[in-house]
Amino acid sequence: MRWSIARTLFRKDLLEALRDRRTLTLLVAVPLLLYPLLLVVTALTSGALARSTEEKPLKLVVWGSPSPMLQEALSGMERVEWVDSRETAPEDPSREAKRLLDERKAHVVLALTSKPVTGSEENLGVRVYSDSGRPESRAARQRLGKVLDRVHLDTVRVRFTEAGLSDELAEPLQVEDSDFRSLGLWLAYMLPYVLLCALVMSGFYPAIDVTAGEKERGTLQTLLCAPVKPLEVVLGKYGVVSLFTLGGALMNLLGMGLAFMAIAGGTVGRVHMSVGTLAAAFGALVPLAMLVSALLIVVGVTARSFKEGQNHLMPLLLVVMALGHGAMIPSVELTPTLALVPIVNVAVLLRELLTGRVDVGLYSVVFVSTLAWAVAGVLFAARVFESEQVLLSGEKPWRDVFGRKVRRGDAFSPGSALLYFAVILVGSLVAGLLLWKRLPMWGVLAVTQVGIFGVPAVGWVRYRGADVREVFSLRLPTGRGALAVLLLIPCALGVQVLLRKALGAASTPGLEEFLRGMELMMKESASWPLPLALAALALAPALCEEAAFRGVMLVGLSRTGSRGVAVVGSALTFGLLHIHPIHVLHAAMLGLMLGYATLRTRSLLAGVVLHFANNALSVVSVRTGTAAVWTWLDTWPVALALCVPGLVALWLLRGEEPVPVPAAVEAAPAEPSVPLPKAS
What we know:
The structure is a single chain. By secondary structure, this protein is mainly α. It folds into 3 domains: 3-43 and 185-394, no CATH class; 56-170, D-Maltodextrin-Binding Protein, domain 2 (3-Layer(aba) Sandwich), CATH 3.40.190; 456-514 and 522-654, no CATH class. It contains 25 helices and 6 strands. The strands form 2 sheets. A 4-stranded mixed beta sheet has the order 2-1-3-4. Strands 5-6 form a two-stranded antiparallel sheet.
């Protein structure tokens, strides 16, 4: 694939989209005006409605003979309009009461009946008819309920006094209300829904314009006649739509933040708005914007005109609105299972962020799972654009998309590697949820490593027709490469110590939680036999994770023609596998060393050895009780000294000769081979 062609198409579509004033208005003007108006108008109207409801007279209907005490209490109520008062109730009081309430002639209807009690005075049966769906009836019922409760208590006190008992016995429970009213909590339920709708609408018209709009103008068909490939086309168009969806999310967050901070000082009841909250919300919206952009492109390209594109995309908007409505349901809580459900997870996460109730772990699960769905969506969009039936609006286009493609030889590509990453990422999350309470920790680790990473990696390579020996670099490193790997072991330790101390100095959120979790896991592993601990925590990850990330991911991404993309991409995906942000940073830094060592030595064994040594050191340190030694190592000078051998290792690795860099994969090669990239 030629990135220059994709960039050219991106600039062309972006300039055309920016000429549309309607799109720019939805992207910039509406968010900056919507949230201040929403906050001010809602505050004014809700306050005015509450006051007007309280000031309205209570339209009361009483059927039956009230007791003297109840009659006195009702007569003493303020703002009461007696609509009807009769000694006996009608034959069908329920039907008559409903008619009065429906016609709004009454707010509350009381039907009183006498109930004889053996050896005592008669009791008074009170049936209250109201309509809680109407604010005025609901408020009237609350006012009347307080009066009835007071009369009930006073009547019991009088009877106790007449019976020669203390009237204090009538109130065995001394109830005192302390109402912590959640002012503004409705904003936390409504704003995520508004944000999701705004995100979709920001990319709605650009997606139609670059797909169905170009079909209608005939430019898409002309473009396909040029010497460009479908993947280059889809990347250019996807980049434009993603830019608008992310821009819409950013502008909506800015409008929301400015409105809250300027008008309400950043806080409305339990809803808190700060720069950190806005940054966390935008981070959660990034993978969702990627997923939504892919869906908009996929659905939009099936239409043949701009009008038809609107009709096709409207159901997608309604689906997002329906899923986003989950944030408005109070009973829906953010759980590890819900964190895997796309769109709903982000909506509920935004609600939790606004109320300050989300932890770093759940945030990470939502981010990583949504990113996996986004990767799958982008790859699906690329497959749709490879179908001429869809692009040219031929008959039965979806059969052409979902039909089995004929493969000739090696079909291993960057797209297949990314799809593999999305599959194992979601699979590892699901496996963790299903197995965590059913198996011991070592069992969960074993099933995940072998069943999610190891075996699928081999199966994926064979399914794609690639050479297993070449993908997994099944060769021994040279003596120079082996020495470099041994020197990288203390360097990996020093880099992780430096990173941990830097994060601690910056008071990074989630660092203590991460260190506490690692400490608990290592303490639990201390009760296992040493061979089991080394196998579960060091050997299995070294073999299976290296096969997945320094095998499938590194070699697949190397087919972009870039060594940097291969190493950095495999390191980032390896980091994201570890979910927690602090763990992601540590794993990504280690992944850079693992990827570079594997790339230069042309041997997966280099990464396996370095990975095993890094994990085994932690296991052994817990068993041997060398806490004092590790405390000594956890200092700036010692950590820097440990990095010195790494400089020597890099010099040694620079002398290794990797295989030539392949050009970006344009078509399946005649003979399957997966060469690694060449040093620049």
